[in-house]
Amino acid sequence: MLPQTAWDGLLREDWFQARYAPHHRIDELVLYKRRADAPVYRLKPSYLRFGQQIEITGVELGSPKAMPGEDLDLLIHWRTAAKLERDYSVSLALVDRWQGGVWAKADSQPMHGGAPTSSWLPGEDIADEHRLSIPSDAPYGPYQIWVGMSLRRTADAMDLPVYDGAGNSLGLTAPLVPIKVPPAHPSSCLAAMETIVASFSDIAKLESFHLEGVAQPGSTLAVHLCWQAMTSWADDRTVFVHMLDSQGNLVTQADGQPDGGRYPLSIWEAGESIPDTHSLRLPENLVPGLYQIRVGLYDWRTGERLPAFTAQTSRYPDDSVPLTTVQVLAQHQQIR
């Protein structure tokens, strides 16, 4: 890097000093080399087009997760089809994937000003490093980094429209890559839960459960489940909790993402235990008697259930795991 250039500011950045060290000098030119202990990025192919000429071809993450209060590092790979006359800035936003709130923003020139877009050559791969700080009060769960591009803040400032690989308009910003914000403390399941071993393909195991509440018409049962992730970063699946009568008819159900959507399968990590509670509302006209509680997982886009197996690898009928049988009491009956 040459002194008295746009790179001077970059050299003073903490993140640059932590990742790069002087390697060789040629007169005033200093060559820097990435340190051996610098984060290893993982490439995720991606494609977004900004305006008519600027493209994102991939994104690399130092880690797919970051704790509250930590920094998240990422590399965006840019390419332009033609010489750019103007300098654009990159905007990033950390968006709660479940509730939609924006928790952090960052706006900067490519490579912190060291690689302005007017200097890009057509077809060149531009590796653009960014850092996004996760607020200390950010709730755990699934997030998405959104990206946009605009002119510098001048009188003619404008945002570039974003398109996907098929040419569909996505607006002025678009989701770039998902990340996970883990709980500040490891999650744990309730004590004294009843053991059950059921596996769903090679994605998850159901290890134990506990019912809370009085089974009466009009009441609500809390169905506490304890899952264990068998793999990391699977596709999201929906949990179903069904109550069936003695004829196998469905009388009530509670379907939803694990932990009310705050902890979907796509952010589970192998070996992690996940507590998950579903509220099962019993109908007001439910006839007293014996009912069975069943649980499973399905693809919310297609309705297809995930194959469910016993500990002996036998497949459950209908891929529905029987948890327990409950006796529904008449409303005037008392528990003794």
Could you describe the 3D structure shown?
This protein is mainly β. The chain has two helices and 21 strands. It has a six-stranded antiparallel sheet with strand order 8-5-4-3-10-11, with no helix packed on it. The chain has a five-stranded antiparallel sheet with strand order 18-15-14-13-20, with no helix packed on it. The longest helix is centred in the N-terminal third of the chain and has 6 residues, at 14-19. The chain is elongated and about 90 Å long.
List the SSEs and their pairings.
Elements: H1 7-11, H2 14-19, E1 20-26, E2 29-34, E3 42-50, E4 54-61, E5 71-80, E6 88-96, E7 102-108, E8 126-133, E9 141-151, E10 162-163, E11 169-171, E12 174-181, E13 194-200, E14 204-212, E15 220-229, E16 238-244, E17 250-256, E18 273-281, E19 289-298, E20 308-309, E21 321-328
Antiparallel strand pairs: 1-2, 3-4, 3-10, 4-5, 5-8, 6-7, 6-9, 9-12, 10-11, 13-14, 13-20, 14-15, 15-18, 16-17, 16-19, 19-21
Summarize the structure.
With 336 residues, this protein is mainly beta. It has helices at 7-11, 14-19; strands at 20-26, 29-34, 42-50, 54-61, 71-80, 88-96, 102-108, 126-133, 141-151, 162-163, 169-171, 174-181, 194-200, 204-212, 220-229, 238-244, 250-256, 273-281, 289-298, 308-309, 321-328.
